Amino acid sequence: MEETPFQCEYCHRFFKHKRSRDRHVKLHTGDKRFQCSQCESAFSRSDHLKIHMKTHDHMKPFQCSFCNRGYNTAAGMYFH
Predict the structure, then answer these.
(1) What is the per-residue DSSP string for 37-61?
(2) Which domain covers residue 57, as residue numbers?
(3) Residue 28 near residue 45, CB atoms below 8 Å
(4) Residues 59 and 71 in one domain
(5) Is 45:26 a contact under the CB 8 Å cutoff?
(6) What is the pLDDT of residue 35?
(7) In terms of pTM, does the model score above 0.90?
(8) CA 73 centroid distance within chain
(9) 21 and 47 fall within a common domain
(10) What's the sign of the alpha-carbon dihedral 80, 44, 42, 37?
(11) Any residues with CB less than 8 A from the CB of 9 and at least 6 apart, and which?
(12) CATH number of the domain to which 9 belongs
């Protein structure tokens, strides 16, 4: 069985790497130091801010082949 020694003190979930646990803990603490320059949104992770910024540039590079609706992330189109 794979060892997962790093536990979240808030929800008690286990992680294999300390870095993964530390990133996860930010979801509980509300540490949102990545602020959007165009609105009031803030994020705990820079990659989440990067995804959010695509909502402001109105670029939607992922397009549904059935209904032609556009999405700014592949995940957005996938869940469509």
Answers:
(1) SSSS-EESSHHHHHHHHHHHHT---
(2) 34-79
(3) no
(4) yes
(5) yes
(6) 97
(7) no
(8) 11
(9) no
(10) negative
(11) 25
(12) 3.30.160.60
pLDDT for residue 13: 96
Residues 47 and 70 in one domain: yes
Same domain, yes or no, for 5 and 16? yes
pLDDT digits (tens, 9 = 90+) for 30-74: 889 999 999 999 998 899 999 899 889 888 889 999 999 999 888
Same domain, residue pair 11 and 41: no
Q: Tell me the sheet residues that pair with 6.
A: 15
pLDDT digits (tens, 9 = 90+) for 11-26: 999 999 999 999 899 8
Handedness of CA 37, 42, 48, 51 (dihedral sign): negative
Same domain, yes or no: 22 and 39: no
Q: What are the structure tokens assigned to 28, written together? A: 């509980």
**Residue that the structure tokens 């320059």 belong to:** 37
Contact 36, 53 (CB under 8 A): yes
